[in-house]
């Protein structure tokens, strides 16, 4: 078992024993990339060490309930996750990540909306011809009349008295989330792929439930790049791959080219430098330092994104100074943004950035 800590699941509470065990089991399924047998083996090991079950409710009861409640099914003598379990994992990832945003320093983004995706702000401005009447701030407008005329009851309103509430319009957005699945995502004793998967699951669940008119496509990139579906996310694994960032961006641009929304963006989660290209069917690889040939092709793709008005945000989860310098150069070429995030803050940064990119003041 990898060196992972699950203390928050071991605290005894008033929850139903099945619900308590289910939360831990879902967490393990993400770490094992959907391998039910391995996750259950971990559950049994943790039960022996931490006494998760008791005489009233044992691990066998839990497995039986998983099957009866439709979370697991048997196929070819193997237990596999059902679509219900996959959706439940996405919802848990959303609560874990979005819950941190609500409680953390990034602020509470779960705000009420008015109209067609417009968020009312506390700021006001003078009424302008063409403003919708439902945006008039009545109390502030009456106060303006009183200040001007000195008579709230008998005064008459004039056009200069009216003020309207500012709003932020939540634009329809087409996004592509790029996840690095190169081998370095599990090197040096640090699991970086699991947080990336959780971010993808949380973001996809958030968009489909809160902004159904938005689109989110998810691609992974190693030696090559390919698109994955929503149901595939818990099963993603790191491979023996280099990092072909060029292939990832090319696929992302191709996906966005076919979208009708004018607002398009790429969100890239990576921990390493680009180290691979594909030329004439062959791979050109260099894991040592920054290869100028690979870097130049990557910067060219960044400039194409800028030229095509595709927003680009990079979430860098490595701390090497020379990689930070490369990301700074890449960000300038793309006209985008970069966040240097630790694993514990990755989800909050991605969700916060996604929401900010949807907002414009009207």
Helices, strands, pairings?
Blueprint: H1 17-31, H2 36-50, H3 59-68, E1 72-75, E2 78-81, H4 83-103, E3 118-126, H5 138-149, E4 163-170, E5 173-180, H6 193-210, E6 215-221, E7 225-228, H7 245-257, E8 263-270, E9 276-279, E10 282-285, H8 292-307, E11 310-316, H9 321-334, E12 337-340, H10 346-358, E13 359-361
Structural descriptors:
single chain; 362 residues; alpha/beta; Rossmann fold; 3 domains; 6-stranded mixed β-sheet; 3-stranded antiparallel β-sheet; 13 strands; 41% helix; flat
Note down, in words, how this protein is organized.
The structure is a single chain. The chain is α/β, with parallel strands linked by helices and 362 residues long. It has 3 domains: 7-81, no CATH class; 128-161, no CATH class; 170-361, Rossmann fold (3-Layer(aba) Sandwich). It contains 10 helices and 13 strands. The chain has helices at residues 17-31, 36-50, 59-68, 83-103, 138-149, 193-210, 245-257, 292-307, 321-334, 346-358, and strands spanning 72-75, 78-81, 118-126, 163-170, 173-180, 215-221, 225-228, 263-270, 276-279, 282-285, 310-316, 337-340, 359-361. The strands form 4 sheets. The chain has a 6-stranded mixed β-sheet, sandwiched between helices. Strands 3-4-13 form a 3-stranded antiparallel β-sheet. Strand 9 (276-279) and strand 10 (282-285) form a beta hairpin. Helix 1 (17-31) crosses helix 4 (83-103) and helix 4 (83-103) packs across helix 10. The termini are far apart. The model is unreliable at 105-118 (pLDDT under 50).
